[in-house]
Automatic annotation (TrEMBL):
InterPro entries: AKR, Aldo/ket_reductase_CS, NAD(P)_OxRdtase_dom_sf, NADP_OxRdtase_dom. This is NADP-dependent oxidoreductase domain-containing protein. One of its GO terms (molecular function) is oxidoreductase activity. Residues 2-182 form the NADP-dependent oxidoreductase domain. Gene3D superfamilies: NADP-dependent oxidoreductase domain. Transmembrane segments: none annotated. It comes from the Eukaryota.
Length: 215
């Protein structure tokens, strides 16, 4: 392989050299060098090893720090985004800075508390889907598409792949968008759960200092 189309920083988190062990222990975490890491990313771009470079799981604060040091701005910020976690503030900032938003978990996922899928179980989305003759998944994907973001969705089912593509020949009404805009917001993918020790080695103050606490 000579190059990749898109190369991303997965999380704005750095660990000491060596094998990564999750959940992360306090002593293994080090401050993230925004300028230094991004210079290395820009060098990959300059050498043609990456056609585009970007980030993932960056908040507006992270992006502000990175852009202050960037010569080549990130092309993409890949974040959790769906009707139940709409990322309005972040999307506005990315649009202002010319950064495209790619939406992972566009159909939600199993909540860490085990209480179901907040997107696919949404009564608001189900009501809209019934009125439009679509599935809840199609309504969620169509909403993301209409926000100008790219949903990252996968399936091993041929039928679902076809269903996921069936979002381009219809649209949501203003009333649909209003209802979706009123859905209570609930983040599913939480860095403090995914990355950090469940034993509480990282306090809320630690996470705030690292700006991992979501906006």
């Amino acid at each position: 392989m000579e190059y990749v189309d898109l190369y991303l920083i997965h999380w704005p988190i750095s660990l000491k050299p060596g094998p990564a062990v999750f959940p992360v222990k306090r002593e293994d975490a080090v401050p993230f060098d925004f300028a230094g890491v991004w210079r290395a990313m820009e060098e990959c771009h300059r050498l043609g090893l990456a056609k585009a470079i970007g980030v993932s799981n960056f908040t507006t604060s992270h992006l502000h720090k990175l852009l202050a040091a960037a010569t080549v701005p990130p092309a993409v910020n890949q974040v959790e985004m769906n009707p139940v976690w709409q990322q309005r503030k972040l999307r506005e900032y990315c649009a202002e800075k010319g950064i495209h938003v790619a939406a992972y978990s566009p159909l939600g996922g199993q909540n860490w508390s085990g209480d179901g899928n907040a997107v696919l179980d949404s009564e608001v989305l189900a009501e809209i889907a019934k009125a439009r003759g679509k599935t809840v998944a199609q309504v969620a994907l169509r909403w993301i598409y209409e926000q100008g973001a790219t949903p990252i969705v996968k399936s091993f089912s041929k039928e679902r792949l076809k269903e996921n593509l069936g979002i381009f020949d219809w649209g949501l009404t203003d009333d649909d968008l209003r209802k979706i805009g009123q859905i209570p917001q609930k983040k599913i993918v939480r860095a403090e759960t995914v990355l950090f020790s469940a034993e509480g080695e990282f306090t809320s103050a630690d996470l705030a200092e690292m700006e991992i606490v979501e906006e």
